[in-house]
Design brief:
This protein is an all-alpha fold. It contains 8 helices and no strands. Helix 6 packs across helix 8.
């Protein structure tokens, strides 16, 4: 199966807003395995949760108007794809790279992955993620993935 590369850029402005917001969230309140503990209809995350759960605070009015299901729970994935201008099918690997529940709760590693996507404008060839940054391959640890990202970012390629 031939995987397509998205031809549109990720919404860098919103991704940078997410990065800056998450840099202020205390480490002990991040849990990538859960969107939200408790009330999933409140736009403000007042519990331990993942990046998406926290960042809904950046787009409150839009979420309340367009992203609640019939039980008034936030449709987190739908919102995050739209907020970042990502197509669910084409950009799923990139979304998982940034926000997947298989990652640890290490805040600095999470933010580095988001910065990497920001630097690349979201125009990352899926082969690049599946070859050089093999985040699901047991041959690479999360720290190895982070080393590869930091090397590229430190080469002067990441600018806000």
């Amino acid at each position: 199966m031939n995987q397509k590369k998205s031809t549109k850029q990720v919404n860098r402005e919103n991704l940078l807003r997410m990065i800056n917001y998450m840099e202020k969230v205390p480490k002990h309140l991040i849990d990538m395995s859960n969107f939200r503990n408790g009330d999933r209809s409140d736009v403000e995350c007042k519990s331990v949760g993942c990046i998406i759960g926290w960042c809904t605070a950046l787009d409150k009015e839009n979420i309340l108007k367009n992203y609640l299901d019939v039980q008034n729970n936030i449709r987190f994935e739908d919102w995050s794809h739209d907020f970042l201008n990502m197509v669910l099918i084409l950009d799923y690997i990139i979304w998982e790279f940034m926000f997947g529940s298989h990652w640890s709760n290490k805040k600095d590693l999470i933010i580095n992955r988001m910065k990497y996507v920001y630097y690349k404008n979201g125009l990352i060839d899926k082969k690049e993620l599946s070859k050089d940054l093999v985040f699901w391959d047991l041959n690479y640890t999360e720290s190895k993935t982070n080393e590869l990202i930091l090397k590229e970012l430190s080469d002067g390629n990441y600018n806000e």
